[in-house]
Amino acid sequence: MKKSKKLRILALSTIATSFLALPTAEAATYTVQKGDTLSKIAQNHQVTIQDIKSWNKLKNDMIYVAQKLEISKTSTNEAGKPTDPSTTKPTTPPKQTTVSHTVVKGDTLSKIAKQYNVTLKDIKEWNGLTTDAIYIGQVLKLSPTATIPEGDKSSGAGTPSKETSKDPSANGQAIYKKTIEVANTLVGTPYVYGGNTPEGLDCSGFIYYAFNQGGLKIGRDSSEGYFNGNTTQVTNPIAGDLVFFENTYKDGISHMGIYLGNNKFIHSGSDGVEVSDVTNSYWSTKLVGYKRFDAIK
After folding, report:
1. Fewer CB atoms inside 10 Å of the end CB: C or N, the chain?
2. Catalytic annotation on 45?
3. Burial 253-281, CB ≥16 within 10 A → b, else e
4. Whether the predicted model's global pTM rises above the 0.85 cut
5. CATH at 152
């Protein structure tokens, strides 16, 4: 009787030991939801970001909605303790990755936010933006910890736009003064598509006429042509600089004017040449930024 009881105890012990030798967790799959980040997922599942990246062969922290991620791959060693089967060496902290996007034609903050599964508010905070205005060639951070090396070309198309925070020389400002004087004499001139004379002007024809009369010889081009041509982005615009807008009568860069200072600009709109305000509820949502002809030194 005692011998039979000992055998039963021995059998139960053997079964218990065999269970301890089984993996403590099988590979589990998690489907990415809106608002998720690798950090959030790692914290919720009590694993590290590096673990998730290793298990899913991710090269950076970018994830997207509906993406399926394996978030648990553990096995046991002889002592019954979980180990990472992918390596027997101590894991090292992941290197910080540069997560950025270079703005291309047709981009908007809303479109970029949706593309990378982040919020528009996040992008504005990470990049110190106070408005939704962005410009072609601008490099945007897509992670609060991201760093953007100077001259970054890692994503998007093209290269970062030229940029200046300096005021023009005395000669350049003299051209600006004369150009604005000419522009003001044109107020009330009717809008004519393709027009570039005082008989009728479209928005880029207005720029062409005013600047040539002001002493800067430029060729005739469209708003988009001037934007992508021989112009430089201006971080501290002054009266005389160019101001550009997008998605007015067509997608992309589609309108321009001459900045007058104090948020005012003069342009040839649908009602003809007039002075408007960039903070207006319509223009503020279309504003792309300010530029300067490279010939203005």
Report:
1. N
2. no
3. bbbbbbbbeeebbbbbbeebbbebebeee
4. no
5. 3.10.350
* Nearest by Cα to 62 from 158, 129, 141: 141
Q: What is the pLDDT of residues 131-184, one digit of tens each?
A: 777 776 677 888 776 655 544 433 333 334 578 888 999 999 999 999 999 999
Catalytic residue list contains 101:
no
Q: Is 155 in the same domain as 167?
A: no
Q: Which of 53, 73, 141, 255 is catalytic?
A: 255
Q: Is residue 231 within 8 Å of 296, Cβ to Cβ?
A: no
Catalytic residue among 53, 101, 141, 267: 267
Helix (H, G, I), strand (E, B) or coil at 213: helix
Q: Which of 109, 118, 140, 203 is catalytic?
A: 203
- Which residue has tokens 């530029």? 291
Range of the domain at 18: 2-83
- As a whole number of angstroms, the distance between CA 221 and CA 229 comes to 9
